[in-house]
Amino acid sequence: MTISDAPPLPALDRTAELAGIKATALAGPDERATQRQHDKGKLTARERIERLLDPDSFHEIEALRRHRATGLGLEDKRPYTDGVVTGWGTVEGRTVFVYAHDFRIFGGALGEAHAEKIHKVMDLAESAGAPLVSLNDGAGARIQEGVSALAGYGGIFQRNTRASGVIPQISVIVGPCAGGAAYSPALTDFVFMVRGTSQMFITGPDVVRAVTGEEISHNGLGGADVHAAVSGVAAFAYDDEDSCLQDVRHLLSLLPANNRETAPHEPGEDPADRRTDALTRIVPANPQQAYDIRKVVEEIADDGEYFEIQPAWAANVVCALARLDGHVTGFVANQPAHLAGVLDIHASEKAARFVQFCDAFNIPLVTLVDVPGFLPGVDQEHGGIIRHGAKLLYAYCNATVPRISLVLRKAYGGAYIVMDSRSIGADLALAWPSNEIAVMGAEGAANVIFRREIAAAADPDQMRAQKIKEYQAELMHPYYAAERGLVDDVIDPGETRTTLVAALAMLRTKYAGLPSRKHGNPPV
């Protein structure tokens, strides 16, 4: 008797059969595989999803998917899920899509069916207009499936690119992510990593040793701290998966679901008109004296809370998300505590990407300016500071979200222009009475303009000091830019929060169209 001739099972038996199959899929491989994962200090795919999403909110799709590949023993190994768990749930009640590699199955390696599951959830996220989080813990392409696996990566990259600027995309590296697999996180908005257990690299230590003779460990080549502080690939690094996933949840709470919405508004108890008199103590009057710009952001933001992006990389510029009167706002600020707050190659790249992200997702921008210029040096010039600095300039010029710049102290030369000056489209340009906006510092300017008088003077030092004072009095007084309409207002530092809240409220309905074009050609 053939299968088609066999009598159908009763409905209850079919239901029991389904329950058994689903239980098998949910359990995954044997307990030894789970224990090996835990012994490495790693959670399983489902444990990670449970910690990321609200309790009991996960809806899995294609849990019963199995590969169809044959050869090299694959036909005898066809586990459910095919090594990746996909679906959607909620974070603080808002829909989020997720996929998580299951390292216990084929080492999390990507095959054709595995890739198709990821493609499906990515398409759903884009269609539904909801964020996508990937939990990466895989051994790369499934070698036994050959080019079919590689093509699966191509489909992921294409979808990453199509969804860029449409929905927030977050990559969490919680294990190995090597070769072509590393390019998907690089295409997403934010990369989170965990120290000791996650690595990203294109070619591993063995290949590096064979090709260059260099000896290096997996973590030394592509560990969390390397990518968070040296390469800039990772935005965040954590000591454990729990704290990492909690911060992913926090970041999601600050972001809109898609590019057609605004970030969630959360009314708080911090008064919009709270004075910020502490700023006069935080920021020294002496423009040469360092201070921590993060304390300025903390004083301005609701309840002193902010979420810094890429804190360990390019520390001479601070990028952060915070709320002002309950509304999420992006802060870009020069950091005088590091390299005097100059702009260099890495700082320009970091700020440019953050500005582009905020603009894509309707997050207004506040720029806090205290910049002595671009970092001079042969390495910077040969490394392309012109091209990289232009990335930040392009990002600001192209941004249509509300933009407010505030000059705290010095703002010299081209760096003043690039840090969202009025001339490149800031909606409002503000300044404190301590501002010094000029082509360069008074000492350097006096040495250039009055070099002959200084050289011919009986006392060159006295003459230099006199000319510096003259230059400061004529071209660097706090109201010079305001008198020429390049600064909209010079404000009391104690009124900074009140002024910014009122200005952002006025700009909330801003509309600024761009010329009709396929896309621009930024200096990438």
TrEMBL record:
Residues 8-267 form the CoA carboxyltransferase N-terminal domain. GO terms for cellular component: acetyl-CoA carboxylase complex. It comes from the Bacteria. InterPro entries: AccD/PCCB, AcCoA_carboxyl_beta, ClpP/crotonase-like_dom_sf, COA_CT_C, COA_CT_N. Pfam families: Carboxyl_trans (PF01039). GO terms for molecular function: propionyl-CoA carboxylase activity. PANTHER family: PROPIONYL-COA CARBOXYLASE BETA CHAIN (PTHR43842), PROPIONYL-COA CARBOXYLASE BETA CHAIN, MITOCHONDRIAL (PTHR43842:SF2). This is Acyl-CoA carboxylase subunit beta. It comes from Streptomyces subrutilus.
